[in-house]
Amino acid sequence: MNEGNVLHIEICQNATSTLSGEVIKKAVNAELMSMNEISLDIILRGKDFVNIIIQNHIESIICSSNYVEKGKIKIQGVVIKYYIYRLTQEGAATETIKYDSDELSVASHWVLPAQEFHYMWENLYYDCDIKNNLLRFVETTMLFSDLAVNSNIISWNKVVLLHGPPGTGKTSMCKALAQKAVIRMADRFTHGELIEINSHSLFSKWFSESGKLVMKLFDEIKNLVQDEKSLICILIDEVESLAHARKSCSNGTEPSDSIRVVNALLTQLDQIKQYSNVLILTTSNMTEAIDIAFVDRADIKQHLGYPSEVAIYNIYHSCLKELMRTGILESEEICDISQLKLFGYTEDSNTKNSLKLLELSRGSEGLTGRTLRKIPFLTHALHLCADKTTLSKFLKAMYSAILKVQQENELQP
Ligand SMILES: Nc1ncnc2c1ncn2[C@@H]1O[C@H](COP(=O)(O)OP(=O)(O)OP(=O)(O)O)[C@@H](O)[C@H]1O
Ligand SMILES: [Mg+2]
Predict the structure, then answer these.
(1) pLDDT tens-digit profile of 172-231?
(2) CATH architecture of 93-303
(3) What's the gap in Å between 43 CA and the centre of ligand 2?
(4) Is 182 exposed, middle or buried (0-12, 13-18, 19+ CB in 10 A)?
(5) Among the atoms of ligand 1, which is closest to the Cα of residue 164?
(6) What mean pLDDT value characterizes the chain?
(7) What percent of the chain has pLDDT over 90?
(8) Ligand 1 neighbourhood includes 172 CB (under 6 angstroms)
(9) Measuring CA to CA, how many Å separate 208 from each of 204, 253, 258?
């Protein structure tokens, strides 16, 4: 099969819908076959379709291809893969461990796919193939495990390390990747579980006990891993706090608590990798502080940096669309980046505002994704008087907000 021709169709069925997957698939397939081409990586809302089944039972449809990003793809000749899922509505549960008389909150626990992480993946924008590569990493991990590839010959640890400056989407990407993997591997897993380890809680107030707490936590995780139909994603945010470089924390003869924690973590990682349904997702913005043996175990070390002009345009575009959806901005046409490219970046009444946004994006380079997503809020709060406004007025005010944020950034050491 030519993978380049695979069209992935992710269908989010309403939580209350009890229709069978087959009926849903048939309705969406009929709709697709009546189209010539379809937009990629765009959230198509069920309520906007004419087909009554789609309208009443489907929240959204997202089409994507591993090899073509954005724009449109011709339906003719492609192989279509369907993924139908329902979101769990519950938020995070807190996992606790009893230690002596204390109850420690050691992790947060979500059942995936979860409402909380819906559209997170689609709203993260990077330039190169970062997202596709991470997804392919997960798929390959599962494939090698399923086919029982001998790990003494080919080694992989199921560990991802995302690193880069604060606010560049590392934590969001881990959560979004876990959710995406569960949706895409529905034929293998009935659901997923995301366990976010609360690193700070593991440092015991009793000297030398923290290593034991790490082992206790992993014992609990190993219970979850026994369910082969569940994909267990372990998120260790700011991993340098658990896997602190051992050479920098030795204090003479007695191993410090930090060293015990690192040793325990490495041992547990080596044990848990034998399970085929486990993924370890970690983040750090201080890679130099991470123990070298941990870094060495990471299969993928992906740097996430400041968004480029195109990524910034996509972020702003998604923000403006959200303001239009909620009625804060009057609804107007605004091109996505592929349309703008198609129009040759020439100015006319259709592209005027979009080109202005491109100019603002260029002027916003050097800001983090976190700051960029704040700009529309600051624009509204500090630079506009009316509750509802037009796009062109909003863009003008955005310019002032960007300028203010940049001036504030210059004041920072
Ligand atoms: N490339 C990006 N595209 C879209 N949104 C982004 C991007 N980078 C960051 N964001 C947004 O910025 C916010 C912060 O992201 P997140 O908390 O994942 O960053 P982080 O790298 O984990 O930061 P920290 O190092 O401070 O923990 C989120 O709302 C996220 O959606
Ligand atoms: Mg983070």
Answers:
(1) 999 999 999 999 999 999 999 999 999 888 876 666 788 888 999 999 999 999 999 999
(2) 3-Layer(aba) Sandwich (3.40)
(3) 25
(4) buried
(5) 21
(6) 91
(7) 73
(8) yes
(9) 8, 14, 9
